[in-house]
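Take a look at the protein record below and flag anything odd:
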Amino acid sequence: MAELPREKDFENAIESSLIQDGYRQGFNENYDKVFAIDKKYLFEFLENTQKEMLENYKKSKGSNWEYEFLNRLHSELEKKGVIEVLRHGFEDILVGKFNLLYSKPNSHLNPKAWEMYEKNIFSVTRQLKYSTKNENSLDMVLFLNGIPIVTLELKNEYTGQNIYNAMKQYREDRDPKELLFRFKQRALVHFALDTSEVYMATELKGKSTYFLPFNRGNNGGKGNPNVEDNFKTFYLWEKVLTIESLTDIIKRFYYIQEKDKKQIAIFPRYHQLDVVRKVEKDLLKRGENYNYLIQHSAGSGKTNSIAWLSHRLANLHNSEDKNVFDSVIVITDRKVLDKQLQDAIYQLEHKHGVVEKIDDNKNSSDLAKALENNTKIIITTIQKFPYALDKIETMGKSKKFAVIIDEAHSSTSGKNMNALKDTLAGKTLEEAKLEEGLDDKTLEDEIVELLKGRTKKDSVTFFAFTATPKHKTLEIFGKKGEDNKPHPFHEYTMKQAIEEGFILDVLKNYTTYDIYYKVAKSINDNPEFEASKASKVIREFVGLHEYAIRQKIEIIVDDFVKNRSGWLNGKAKGMIVTSSRLHAVRFKQEIDRYIAEKGYNIKSLVAFSGTVNHDEFDYTEEFMNEGLKEKELPTKFDTDNSMKLLIVADKYQTGFDQPKLCAMYVDKILSGVTAVQTLSRLNRTTSGKDTTFILDFSNTTEEIQDSFKPYFESTLIDKNTDPNMLLDMYEKLHKFGVFFDGELDNFTRMYLKAKANTDVARLNALTDLAVERYLKLGEDEREDFKKTSIKYIRYYNFLLQIYEILNPNLYKLVVYLSGLVKKLPKGEISEKICLDSLVELDSFKIKQIAGDGSKGKNISLIEVSEDDKTLIGPTDGAASRVKEEELETLETIIEKINKVFGLDLTENDKLSLDQLEGDFVHNEQLQSRAKSNTKEDFIDSFDKDFMKMLVQRMSKNQDFFTRIIKDKTLQNFIVKNIAENLYESFTK
C-alpha cells in the first residue's frame, strides 16, 4: 500500500527547488558549532572574491589564521549585527575591509559589480545539528557565504502536525541563547511552515516568541489559495527565498527599528514585499505615466511599505540604465514617517541626506530647492504644493517625479491636485500659456498646450495609499480591470488584517441606544420658521439639553468605570465622539462634574478646534484642559494613567493611533468613510488587548455595517463616470443664452494673460453682460442655469484627473463660468434660528436596542455576503445651491414631530419617523447625490433608499412600518417630505 507524503518528502521538494535556483547543498561536517558558521562556503567565497586579501591575512596571523578570522568575524557580528556586517563588511587594521556580500547592482553600468554578485554562495543544509550542548537539529538552514540567515521548521499535515506544532517547537525546543538563534547576531528570520501556511519571527524569545503570518491572503481573508499541482506555500521557496529575492531583502528591506528604547528586526510581511516588487515590475513594463492605487488596511504596516517603496523608486533604473525618477515626493501627515524613513534608509544606504523633510519650519522655496537639487526622497504635505507654483520656473521639463500620497482622499482631487501636477511639471500655471514663443499661436493652441500639461502627467507618477478609497479616488488612481472599471493595483484588506490579528474587529462588541423625546411650546405666540431648519434646531436643542446630556454621560462614565477601566491591567482608555464643539464643551463640564460626584478616580480631556462661546464665556481646548497645550495632549493622554476619557469634536477621529483605546462612546451620526475611520481608532492592537467596545447613541447597527461593507474587502464602484455628461451640460448651458462664444474667447484670452498684466475692468465687463441676461430669465431657469454651471465646473475638474481632455471650448467655458458664478446674485442669507427660549423638553428616555447590558452585539462582517459593497458615483443632473424656504408656524413644526401629518400615532411611531429621517442626515452617498442632481431627480431616486432603511428598522416598529408599506399614498407623502428636507439640508 502506498504511503502518504512524509515531512522528509516536503523537505526534499523545498531543497530541490532551491538547488535548482542556484543554492549549493550544505553538510553538517562543514558547520562550526562554536562560531555558528559554515566554514567551507565562507572561505570558498573569500578565495573566489578577495583571494589576495585573504592570503595577506593568513601571512599576518600564521598557522592559527582560520581561528583568528572566525573569532574576528564573530566579534563583529556580535557587536554590529549580522545585517550590518553583510551589507558593509568588516575591517582588519592590517589587511583592510572584507566584504561578506556583493549585492545585485541597480544598473548594468558596472560589469565587474555583476561578476562579483554572481560569486555569492547560497547554501541549504538539512537537519542541521547546531548545538554544542546537545544533538538537536533544525529542519533546514539557509546560508549566505557561510553565514546563517534563515532557519525553517517544517510540518506536514499528513503526519498529524501543522504550522502550530512548528511554532511550538521554536518556542519550547529552540534555546534563544544558542548562537544560531541570538538576536541580530546570526539568523535574520525564522520561518514556521506547513503545506498550507507560513509564519515568521525575527527574534526567538522562548514562549514569548511572536510569530507573524507570512501568507498571500485568500478571498480577501487570511491564509493561502489553492494552487494547481503545487503546495499552497510554494511561494516561500520559489519566490521569497530565491537567491535574487533574498539578496534584495537583505539589501533593501531588512532593518533594525528603534522603538520605545527597544530594538525590533523588521522583515517585510508578504504583502509589503509583494506590492513593492509588483509596482517596480509594472513600472518598468508600462512606463512611468500611470497611477497606482494601493488599498492597504490599518494594520498593514503602511509606514514601512511607503518607506520601502520610496527607497525602491529613488534607486530605480530603466533598460537604458538611467534613473526612472529624479526625486520621490512623499505627501503625508504621518508624523512618525519622516524619522522612520530616515532611520531605515540610513541603514539601507549607510549615508545621511537621502531624505529631506519640508515641514512647517520650511517654505515652498525649500521645496523648490530640494526638487532642483534632485534630493532623492522629499517628505512634505499637500498644502505646500500650491505655494510652490511660482518657485520652480527654472526646472527642466525632462524631470520625472514619483509622488506617494499617504491616505489619498478628496484632498488630492480638483485644484490641489492640479496645483501638484503643475508644480511637479516644472512650471507655473502661466508658463505653458504665456511664454513669448507662444505669441504666434492661436488661443486654441495655447489652451491645448496648457491642457496637455495638466492631463497627461508626463512628469509625474502617482502612488496613492489608502485604506478607504472613495469613488473619486478609485477613478483617479485605480487601474482598469477586465470589467473596464477601476480597481486598486494592490490590496491588503481589512478582513485579512482582522483575521491575521494585526487589527481588532471593532464591530464584534457593539451596543446601540435609541433616544425617545417629546418637546412642547413654552410661549403663547406662534411664530413662523423655515420647517426643515426648525426641525433640525429642535433636535439640536434636545441634544444639548442639560437633562439629555446628563443621562448620556451617566451611562458613558458608569459603563467605562464598571466594565472597561479594568481592561489592559487598568490602562484602558475611552473616546467620546460628540456631534459639535459645543457638545464637546458641555460633555466635558458634565463628565467632570459627575466624576467628582461619584468619587471616581479618573479624569477626562477634551479636544476641539478654536473657541466656543457658551453662556457668554469663551472656551478653548487648552483652557478646559487646565493649560495643557494642544501638541501635548496625545502624550498626556498616553502617559497619564488617570486620564481615561478623551472627548472629541472633529479631532482625533482619523490618524490617531492610541493602542490603549478600548472603548468608544458615539453621540454623532456617522456614515461612509467617516464611520469607518472614526470607529477604527479602536482597532490598534497591544499586549493584553483582545476586544473593544462601542456604545452608540446616534446610529443603528445596520447603518454601521453598511458603512463598513465597501471597505471590508475589495472596494468596487457601481459604474464608471461617463465623460460625455460634460458635453451634455455644455450644450444645455449654451441654450440659456446667458453668454456668447465670442465672450468666452475674449474672457479666456484675457484670463490667460491676467497673471502677467491683469485687466480687471474688461473681465468684469464681460461677465456683467451675462449677469444682465441671467436676471431676465424666469426663476426656474435661473435656478437651473446656476445649478448646471456649478455642476459643470466640478465635473470638468474631476474628469481632468482621469482623461486627457483637449477640447479648448470645454476649457473656455469652465474658465468663464468660474468667474460668472461668483457674480450671480446670491439668495438672501437666512438668519440663524434660535428656539431655546421658545420650546421645552417634555420627556426624554434612553433605551438600549442592540446588546445585552454591558455586553454588545456582534455585528462583524466576517461572514457577510458580497451584496451591497459598491460605492455610488456621480449621477446625471445638476448641483443646487438655490432653494425656496417654506415657512411654518412653530406649533405646526412641533406637531409634525409629535403628531406626524395628523395620523393617530403613538410616541414610538413619532420617534420612529423622526429617526428615519435622521438616519440619512450624514449619509455621504446621499449628500453626493443631492449635490450632483436636481431636487426632482433626487426625490425620484430616494424611494429605494427609504424602503431599504424602512425594512432594516422594521423590527423596531413593525405595525407602523407595515402600514407605510401598504399605504402607497402615505408612503409617497412621507418619502417626498423626508427627501425634500434632506435635499435642502445637503445643498444649502
Observations:
- The two ends are 80 Å apart (CA to CA).
- DSSP finds 37 helices and 35 strands in the chain.
- Residues 124 and 593 are 68 Å apart (CA to CA).
